[in-house]
């Protein structure tokens, strides 16, 4: 089955084509979201949003890139959006705590509790904190490079840049993450 | 903390991230995706009408404001024009008392 055939069937609203698409890319999309969010439930939730968006915007897909690249790009964007949403919620929760308005903050954030994320996974929590300091492009290149099945040229396609640029982004990200981890560990050791 | 100890801890944290096992979607995942897709479809159709109505109302409101402002400006300038016309006419009609005495 070629991509073109699948796209055509998807554009016609063929439900079996959609099931096929989920079968083909579902696992990789979930694992992409998981690497960014480090939480299985969130990864499942966001990956569903990815496929819902794919389903509703397939008509706007112009075929300038591969179908898989387009889908993974949506997965990356949605994951980054979720990370930004989390940090917004974290800010609201800490402001709420400061003014003893935990209940209001909890209502505003839909019951979000930042301490429950990565509970018991201290090392991953530290990496997540370090990753939060990276600019989006470094974070994307670094995170995707850690997922099995993504080559640098594929990452370059997703990020709409060159392979050389991706290599440089990964190199800079590694360096920054290591430095940030040192600072985090030193602060925690105090 | 010693530099070597710190470096070890850094590489431990990084390798914990590297070694992260891929996850398998739960059995519920596919089913709940179909459910969400259906509800999104329903929501899409349902939410279109109120949005369109709201946009139409906003456009009508803005057009009304524009018409009112425009007519307000026109009236103001018409009044100004009329008063300047009257002034001109009154000046023309007025006979100079000096010229009369001559």
What does this entry look like structurally?
The complex is a heterodimer of chains A (190) and B (102). In chain A, helix 2 (15-37) packs across helix 4 (67-98). Chain A is an all-alpha fold. Chain A is built from nine helices and no strands. Chain A is globular and about 55 Å long. Chain B is mostly helical. Chain B is 86% helix and 0% strand. Chain A binds chain B through residues 18, 22, 26-27, 30-31, 34-35, 38, 40, 43-44, 47-48, 51-52, 55-56, 121, 123-124, 126-127, 130, 146, 148, 177-178, 181-182, 185-186, 189, and chain B through 1, 6, 9-10, 12-14, 16-18, 20, 22-26, 29-30, 32-33, 36-37, 40, 44.
Instruction: Give the structural class of chain A.
Output: mainly alpha
Q: Which class best fits the helix and strand makeup of chain B?
A: mainly alpha
Query: What oligomeric state best describes the polypeptide chains here?
Result: heterodimer
**Gross geometry of chain A:** globular
Task: Count all strands of chain A and give the number.
Answer: 0
* Overall number of strands of chain B: 0
Task: Please give the structural blueprint.
The complex is a heterodimer of chains A (190) and B (102).
Chain A: H1 3-11, H2 15-37, H3 40-57, H4 67-98, H5 102-108, H6 122-132, H7 136-145, H8 152-159, H9 163-189
Helix pairs in contact in A: 1-2, 2-3, 2-4, 3-4, 4-5, 4-8, 6-9, 7-8, 7-9, 8-9
Chain B: H1 3-18, H2 27-93, H3 97-101
List keywords for this structure.
A: 190 residues; mainly alpha; globular; B: 102 residues; 86% helix; 0% strand; elongated
What can be said about this structure in brief?
The complex is a heterodimer of chains A (190) and B (102). With 190 residues, chain A is mainly α.
């Amino acid at each position: 089955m070629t991509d073109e055939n699948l796209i055509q069937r998807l554009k016609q609203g063929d439900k079996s084509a959609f099931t096929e698409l989920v079968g083909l890319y579902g696992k990789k999309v979930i694992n992409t979201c998981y690497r960014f969010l480090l939480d299985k439930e969130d990864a499942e939730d966001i990956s569903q949003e990815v496929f819902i968006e794919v389903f509703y915007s397939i008509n706007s897909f112009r075929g300038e890139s591969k179908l898989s690249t387009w889908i993974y790009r949506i997965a990356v964007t949605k994951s980054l959006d979720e990370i930004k949403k989390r940090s917004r919620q974290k800010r609201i929760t800490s402001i709420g705590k400061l003014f003893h308005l935990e209940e209001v903050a909890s209502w505003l954030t839909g019951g979000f509790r930042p301490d429950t994320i990565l509970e018991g996974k201290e090392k991953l929590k530290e990496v997540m904190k370090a990753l939060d300091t990276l600019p989006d492009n470094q974070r994307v290149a670094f995170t995707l490079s850690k997922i099995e099945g993504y080559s640098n040229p594929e990452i370059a396609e997703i990020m709409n840049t060159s392979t050389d640029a991706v290599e440089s982004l990964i190199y800079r990200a590694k360096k920054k993450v290591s430095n940030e981890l040192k600072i985090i560990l030193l602060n925690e050791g105090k | 903390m010693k530099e070597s100890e710190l470096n070890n801890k850094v590489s431990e944290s990084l390798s914990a991230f590297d070694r992260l096992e891929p996850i398998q979607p739960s059995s519920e995942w596919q089913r709940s995706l179909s459910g969400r897709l259906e509800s999104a479809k329903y929501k899409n159709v349902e939410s279109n009408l109120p949005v369109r109505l709201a946009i139409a109302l906003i456009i009508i409101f803005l057009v009304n404001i524009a018409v009112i402002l425009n007519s307000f400006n026109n009236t103001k300038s018409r009044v100004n024009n009329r008063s300047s016309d009257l002034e001109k006419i009154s000046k023309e009609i007025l006979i100079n008392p000096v010229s009369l005495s001559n």
